[in-house]
Amino acid sequence: MRRAEIPEDATELARFLIGRTLVRERGRARIVGRIVETEAYLPHDAAAHSFIGMTPRNRSLFLEHGHAYVYFCYGAHFMLNVSAGPEGVGCGVLLRAIEPMNGNVRPAFDFARGPGRLAKAFHVDRRFDGIDLCATGPLWLGGALAPIGEIGTSVRIGISKDAHRPLRFFERGNPHVSGPRRLNGDGAKT
DNA sequence: TGCACGATAATCT
DNA sequence: GATTATCGTGCAA
Question: Which residue is nearest to nucleotide C7 (CA to C1')?
Fold first, then answer.
């Protein structure tokens, strides 16, 4: 996907990425999946890592939109984000769940359900921090390969500050979406 | 230099 | 549903 095609605004980008694909080239192997759940982290958002200003850890969030921000959390998991906003503005989109699209084998339903499993399933670690997801390489964003269903919204998961804002987006009814059922039901607005 | 804690997930009951 | 494994980061001292 060309950078010019994707929204710069974090909230718009989070919504836009639902249904698009993430591709991981790994030698001869290729892992492809549809993004089905995202969360937006805005500039000046107390729940965002960029809130405290630019540091060595979060500097990738300040890159031009379409770059990867990968960080390590809870001593065990990597999280993959797509940076948003123009260069110098710290905001981004956390990729929370992906529906596997690899043809032949059918991976487990929870293959990439949840941000930690997602990074693991796509073999993403800190080495991918800062790479351009709009360029050809080991990890990149592709267009939608299938029709995109209705998009639901809810509050974000696992945060304590600014926890009420509806900045989580997901494809409604998709079993590969993570999170408690109450957030994914019909009550959630489109 | 120390230390509290986090945008979780596996493993229990 | 509760517990806990596990470690880098940021801030205080």
Answer: A75
Single-letter amino acid code for the residue at A33: G
CA angle A106, A152, A63 (to 5 degrees): 85
E strands, chain A, in order: 21-26, 29-41, 68-73, 77-83, 92-100, 112-113, 139-142, 151-154, 168-171
Distances (CA, A) of A18 to A50, A77, A144, A168, A170: 23, 22, 9, 11, 7
Single out the residue of A112, A110, A59, A109 nearest to residue A87, CA to CA: A59
DSSP assignments along A132-158, one per residue = BTTSSSSEEEE--SS---PEEEEPPSS
| Amino acid at the residue A179 | G
What global pTM score does this model have?
0.95
Q: What is the DSSP letter of A178?
A: -
CA of A51, C1' of B2: distance in angstroms: 24
Rounded mean pLDDT for each run of 10 residues along chain A, 190 residues in total: 97 98 94 96 95 94 97 95 97 96 70 95 96 97 96 93 93 92 73
> How far apart are the C-alpha atoms of A19 and A13, rounded to whole Å?
12
| Length in residues, chain A | 190
A74 touches strand C (CB under 7 A): yes
